[in-house]
Write a structure and sequence with these properties.
heterodimer, A: Immunoglobulin-like, 2 domains, 8-stranded antiparallel sheet, 4 helices, 29% strand, B: mainly alpha, Rna Polymerase Sigma Factor, Chain: A, Arc Repressor Mutant, subunit A
């Protein structure tokens, strides 16, 4: 354990009071922040990100199924923007339906996409029905997807009953991502302790 | 004490130093905003620069949230993967890059944090002394800003700041360790604090 450094020893008392006050504030911020962690040698450089490679999730269905889902997602997204939302308490600019796959085939969901705020954050409201409850320590995660592969995380949620509605906020510009063909759908993956990769349980 | 000399010299003596006031440093170049825009155009060098500038901030945030080095390093990787993918959507006219980067990091980290949120076996008898969510968020943001600002310092100043604040060494001991005069240690430390004050202007009262 180390003692906090002494501001007077570091800086002295020479200088205009306003400058000393400014430096003292920085000193206090440094003390409060504590030391930044050291990177391990394996993390000294930025990760290599390939355009076609996505996070470490296993592809679950055939290319055809994902291509079909992607097409549905694209249509749903476009239609949603023109039709608008259906929940009066959340001003939705679009609605994207989702459905379960595999053991969660009975599950359904709607993602209502709000208008972005001045900071570029997109509010989302999601209603999920029929997903199975999670084991202790588990959670579901909503992600954007490209060709069925999860790409960008949008937030996490849990299930405490047959149906749940919750709100998320994502900092990505969804319209721009869509125009840039960075995503063409959405998926939900199920995280449970000890299970890697996390399986996709819902898709668009 | 300032003294006027009535010397007949062919040049002007330098004016008395204004108590060693350090001028504001120029804006960091390239800026975070410029780097993000270049990353959006798939510039690998800009991505590496952005990583060097923010990786320790992201890792620090992840460690505070997750408390586990392995998961924090996974979150670090995921954060920068997300930044690479989403950078093309960043619009500088909507705001500075640092909050955007912070939001992407927070999203990636909070996903990994879900697994740890298990209820305690028994409700505590006494109120927690830990900071509330708002306060924690504020602390996280300030630490993020401080750590990323440190990464913008010249190497020789960054090292002195880290030694001065987190090694427990005195200024004299730092001078001996670095093999430089004590006065140089003090000058560089003060210069580094002034740079940090400029970088952290919005965090100062």
């Amino acid at each position: 354990m180390t003692n906090d450094p002494n501001f007077h020893e570091l800086v002295g008392d020479e200088g205009p009071p306003e400058e000393l006050d400014r430096l003292r504030q920085v000193h206090e911020l440094l003390v409060a922040a504590g030391p930044p962690p050291e990177l391990s040698p394996a993390h000294e450089h930025a990760p290599k990100v390939e355009e076609s490679k996505v996070l470490r999730f296993k592809r679950r269905r055939t290319t055809f199924v994902f291509a079909f889902a992607a097409a549905i997602a694209a249509v749903a997204f476009a239609v949603g923007y023109t039709v608008g939302g259906r929940n009066s308490s959340f001003e939705a600019a679009g609605v994207v339906p989702m459905h379960g796959i595999g053991s969660q085939a009975a599950a359904t969901a709607d993602i209502r996409i709000g208008k972005h705020d001045s900071g570029g954050n997109y509010p989302l409201e999601m209603s999920v029905k029929g997903l199975s409850r999670l084991p202790k320590g588990g959670w579901y995660e909503l992600l954007l997807s490209k060709n069925g592969h999860p790409t960008l995380a949008c937030g996490s949620f849990g299930i405490d009953g047959k149906e749940t509605t919750f709100r998320l906020s994502v900092p990505y510009d969804l319209s721009e991502l869509r125009k840039a063909d960075t995503f063409d759908g959405w998926v939900v993956v199920r995280h449970t302790p000890g299970q890697h990769p996390a399986p996709i349980v819902m898709t668009t | 004490m300032a003294t006027d000399f009535a010397l007949d010299l062919p040049f002007r003596l330098p004016t008395a130093a204004k108590a060693a006031t350090i001028p504001k440093v120029s804006t960091l170049s390239p800026t975070d905003e410029e780097l993000l825009e270049r990353v959006g155009r798939r510039d690998g060098d800009a991505f590496e620069t952005l990583y060097r500038r923010y990786s320790r901030s992201v890792l620090g945030l992840a460690l505070r949230r997750l408390g586990d080095r392995g998961r924090a390093e996974d979150a670090l990787q995921e954060t920068f993967t997300a930044i690479w993918r989403a950078a093309k959507t960043y619009r500088p006219e909507r705001g500075p890059a640092a909050p955007w980067l912070f939001a992407v990091a927070r999203n990636s980290i909070s996903d990994r944090g879900r697994a740890r949120r298990e209820p305690p076996a028994e409700a505590p008898d006494e109120p927690s002394t830990e900071a509330g969510p708002d306060e924690q968020a504020e602390q996280s943001w300030v630490s993020w800003r401080v750590h990323s600002a440190i990464e913008t310092l010249p190497d020789h100043e960054r090292r002195l700041i880290e030694l001065a604040y987190w090694s427990g060494l005195s200024q004299s001991e730092i001078a001996e360790l670095e093999g430089i005069p004590l006065g140089t240690v003090k000058t560089r430390t003060r210069s580094a604090l002034a740079r940090l004050a400029d970088a952290l202007e919005e965090e100062l009262r």
